[in-house]
Amino acid sequence: MKLLKNVMVLAAVACGLLIPGQVRGADTTYRYLWSHYTGWEPWQYISDSGIMKKWADKYNVKVEIVLINDYVTSINQYTSGAAVGCAMTIMDALDLPASGGIDCDVLVVGDYSDGNDGLVLFNGKSVKDVKGRNVLIVKDSVSSYLLSQALKAEGLHDADVTEVNTSDANIGATFATSGVLGATVTWNPILMQVRNLPNAKLVFDSSKIPGEIQDLLVVRRDAPEPVKKALVGAWYEAMSIMSAQGKQADQAIEAMAKFAGGTVPEFKAQLRTTRMFYTPQDGIAFIESPMLEKTAKTVTSFCFDHGLLGQGAKSADFIGIELPGGKIMGDPKNVKIHYNGQYVKAAAEGKL
Q1: Are the C-beta atoms of 248 and 241 separated by less than 8 Å?
Q2: Residue 63 in contact with residue 227, Cβ under 8 Å?
Q3: Mean pLDDT of 76-99
Q4: pTM of the full predicted structure?
């Protein structure tokens, strides 16, 4: 039986189906996945600079930061068990891993999009000009949410457009050749590229829905405590460097801009449309604010209305969300999202 169990474990690892944390030892490497987005570019700096290794060594664990060029693929890999954590938005945490039964800890709300996501049209002046068009989009992701909110704000409906599912790895190039009635919803750094094309216009962005597109550090709830502490510690060390003045900050921003495929001025412009929470104190203030619960209700309602909470969902309360302080939104018997602020509080108190 022991041999059979070992064979099954090896097969699960080979298929990417083993949940990290179920098999633990000195040689276990915990993978954290991210994809290109302005607020997540720090992860590559955290890896390349040695910050991640420093914090992993402190807690005697091995953590690998891995770039996945396709956003949905990164979340699917996390959901399948191929990684211990992943950078994602609150909506995508709900409609992918949580709806698939994965119990998730939100360790850090790193930022919210404050203009980093937007709707861009060729030969259009307002949101109303998108009516009847095909919209290039990472379908059923937070981009679909933003599009729906944009349409609603102008008295339009989801059925007034056709969403064309397009990988974020290809969406910029596809939009550039999409013709005079081209339309897309995307995020930075891609958004900056497409909005600057001739005859392209940004007609709606996330600054009009502040706090609703939250960008998160998500890990499996059963992930080892040392891994959680190392990830949070590494994140806030990078944040302190980014937000400071001097040579080290300049080098960090330059590295992030280069990895994002743009210039330093472009990256700084993108940061201005990202409400970064550079300190743990800022992060705590956000998750303990009334905005968090209000946003969670708005997002879960959207997910339910669009059939994204799974076949068993009979209401927007199908998936429970644990807010800081222990309050449960939704079904207390099916809590899959936990805003776990203990590590951010430890960072704020200098106890990580």
Answers
A1: yes
A2: yes
A3: 97
A4: 0.89
